[in-house]
Amino acid sequence: MPKEKTTKSKDASLREIVEKNLAKDQATSSKESKLKLKLPKRVKKVKEPKTSKSKFKKYFKILRIFGIFGFLISPFQEIKLVTWPDWKTTLRLTFAVVCFSVIFGIMVSLLDWGFEIIFKKVFLHG
After folding, report:
1. CA 25-26-27 angle, 5° bins
2. CA-CA distances (angstroms) from residue 68 to 61, 63, 78?
3. Rounded to an integer, what distance in angstroms lies between the CA atom of residue 73 and that of residue 67?
4. What contacts 93, CB < 8 A, 6 or more positions away?
5. Rounded CA separation 58/96 (Å)
6. Domain extent listing, the chain
7. Alpha helices (H) in 1-126, listed in sequence order
8. pTM of this prediction?
9. Cα-based distances in Å from 25 to 13, 17, 37, 57, 76
10. What is d(CA 62, CA 3) in angstroms, rounded to the nearest whole number?
11. With contact defined as beta carbons under 8 Å apart, do 63 and 73 qualify?
């Protein structure tokens, strides 16, 4: 019997905690709704005057629609989107490429030399 009393008391304490949390949630939601009502209305954005750049954009769009010189325009637009590495990273990556190329060249020349010896002995009997 004592076990039932402890479970009932635990259930009651859990129920109280849940009710308190619900009350807090309702209080915060009502505060948020009041705050939303007090915020001012959005200000309309002022349109900027059209510049000559917008005219060029229109022409580029027309050219792209018809496919005329589209292959010349798109690479320049892609280059504008590229994030270039800093000088230190560029040097490090260049050094890595040069080292890889030298090692690969040495490996290929050793294989070529080995195959040359093998083919001379097999085909030329020498």
Report:
1. 90
2. 10, 5, 18
3. 10
4. 85
5. 44
6. 7-37, 54-83, 85-126
7. 2-38, 52-66, 70-81, 87-123
8. 0.38
9. 19, 12, 19, 51, 54
10. 82
11. yes
Structure tokens at 52: 């000559």
- Write the pLDDT tens digit of every residue in 38-59: 545 565 666 665 555 566 666 6
Joined tokens for residue 12:
């009651």
Q: Which amino acid is at 80?
A: K
What would the pLDDT profile of 8-32 be if each residue is shown by its tens digit? Answer: 566 677 778 878 877 777 776 665 5
- How long a stretch of residues is the chain? 126
Distance between CA 104 and CA 112 in Å, rounded?
Answer: 12
Which tokens sit at 86?
Answer: 């800093």
Q: What tokens does 79 get?
A: 């280059």
